[in-house]
């Protein structure tokens, strides 16, 4: 049985033994001999990255002898709660969950805890419950920092250039990552807002004014269009902070409809995240400026290794056991490093096998 109280997880050196008699442990049942079954709940099929995450987790677990049950919540928090409930009822040995709404899973995670099913919060931290055992993600604040640094460099802000007009976009309000991305960016942009080298003409600088429910591109497009109509009749926007490629593409559509993308009205510097194929192509075509590349195959690997360790009574490696607080506890976390990709270095994606050269044509 997975025994929550034995999860100390203070670092790689902390060896401990989980109680060795139950599900998934080397206890001799047919299920455990095969490694057991892992339930995987992903948020949506509408974004390419989550398809890669799901596929990579399934393939990696199968390679280690596990069975898998993969479900997608189609961006509906209630649907995800019921999917996770079903996985618990089916008696999975562990759960890997990328939450749609960071708080809606608390009830169903109590059921998981009652059934001694370990839970890994995948990419997005689940808040407000003690029943989340580990967290695997990228350094989310670093993502925001990379996006802000790109804008700072491209506009020459450190050389004193400006003033420039910028508009800010953030992710879904119910995703814990949204705040990390935004804070990571704003720590670096704020000094230039204070010095008026950067001006937000819409005045919308508070997180609650700029979030994009469900990270939805068309929603971002709508907001960008209305900001352009209201505030940029005679002015030009020089940069857009966008936290995610889907939002960047929505913003780009609004900009193009407003006549941006010509010599006299060039597109602004526009950031992104996830290195989605459509956005990488847009970068190559000189439209979106940048994206943050997170190799989610490595994230999948991290989650798989963690599950395998837990179910085989080994102490999972963690990088950070204090920093990721979910309101009830600090969740031991493994954090991978994101990197910036733009027109100058998108080859990395091919070298890593993230895309083939043909796919990028
Ligand atoms: C976040 C994730 C981003 C992006 C976004 C929209 O939680 O960290 O990489 O995928 O969701 O799907």
Automatic annotation (TrEMBL):
<dbReference type="GO" id="GO:0030288">
    <property type="term" value="C:outer membrane-bounded periplasmic space"/>
</dbReference>
<dbReference type="InterPro" id="IPR028082">
    <property type="entry name" value="Peripla_BP_I"/>
</dbReference>
<dbReference type="Pfam" id="PF13407">
    <property type="entry name" value="Peripla_BP_4"/>
</dbReference>
<protein>
    <submittedName>
        <fullName>Sugar ABC transporter substrate-binding protein</fullName>
    </submittedName>
</protein>
<keyword id="KW-0732">Signal</keyword>
<dbReference type="InterPro" id="IPR025997">
    <property type="entry name" value="SBP_2_dom"/>
</dbReference>
<dbReference type="InterPro" id="IPR049784">
    <property type="entry name" value="ChvE-like"/>
</dbReference>
<dbReference type="InterPro" id="IPR050555">
    <property type="entry name" value="Bact_Solute-Bind_Prot2"/>
</dbReference>
<dbReference type="GO" id="GO:0030246">
    <property type="term" value="F:carbohydrate binding"/>
</dbReference>
<feature type="domain" description="Periplasmic binding protein">
    <location>
        <begin position="38"/>
        <end position="313"/>
    </location>
</feature>
């Amino acid at each position: 049985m997975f025994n929550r109280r034995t999860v100390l997880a203070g670092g790689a050196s902390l060896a401990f033994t989980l109680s060795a008699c139950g599900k998934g442990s080397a206890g001799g049942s047919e299920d455990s001999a095969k490694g057991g079954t892992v339930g995987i709940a992903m948020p949506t099929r509408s974004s390419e990255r989550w398809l890669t995450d799901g596929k990579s987790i399934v393939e990696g677990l199968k390679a280690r002898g596990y069975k898998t049950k993969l479900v997608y919540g189609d961006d509906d928090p209630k649907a995800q709660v019921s999917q996770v409930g079903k996985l618990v009822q089916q008696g999975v040995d562990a759960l890997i969950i990328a939450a749609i709404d960071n708080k809606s899973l608390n009830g169903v995670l109590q059921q998981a805890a009652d059934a001694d099913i370990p839970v890994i919060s995948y990419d997005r931290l689940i808040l407000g419950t003690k029943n989340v055992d580990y967290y695997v993600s990228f350094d989310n604040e670093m993502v925001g920092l990379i996006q802000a640094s790109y804008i700072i460099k491209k506009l020459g802000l450190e050389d004193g250039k400006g003033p420039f007009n910028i508009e800010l976009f953030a992710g879904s309000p119910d995703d814990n990552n949204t705040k990390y991305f935004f804070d990571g960016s704003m720590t670096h942009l704020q000094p230039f807002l204070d010095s008026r080298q950067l001006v937000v003409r819409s005045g919308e600088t508070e997180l609650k004014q700029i979030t994009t429910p469900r990270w939805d591109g068309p929603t971002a497009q709508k907001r960008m269009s209305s900001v352009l109509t209201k505030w940029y009749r005679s002015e030009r926007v020089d940069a857009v902070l966008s936290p995610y490629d889907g939002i960047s593409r929505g913003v780009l559509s609004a900009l193009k409809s407003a006549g941006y993308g010509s010599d006299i009205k060039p597109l602004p510097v526009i950031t992104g995240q996830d290195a989605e194929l459509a956005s990488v192509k847009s970068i190559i075509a000189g439209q979106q400026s940048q994206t943050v590349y997170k190799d989610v195959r490595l994230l999948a690997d991290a989650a798989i290794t963690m599950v395998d360790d837990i179910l085989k009574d080994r102490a999972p490696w963690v990088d950070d056991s204090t920093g990721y607080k979910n309101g009830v506890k600090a969740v031991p976390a493994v954090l991978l490093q994101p990197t910036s990709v733009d027109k100058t270095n998108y080859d990395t994606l091919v070298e890593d096998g993230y895309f083939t050269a043909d796919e990028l044509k």
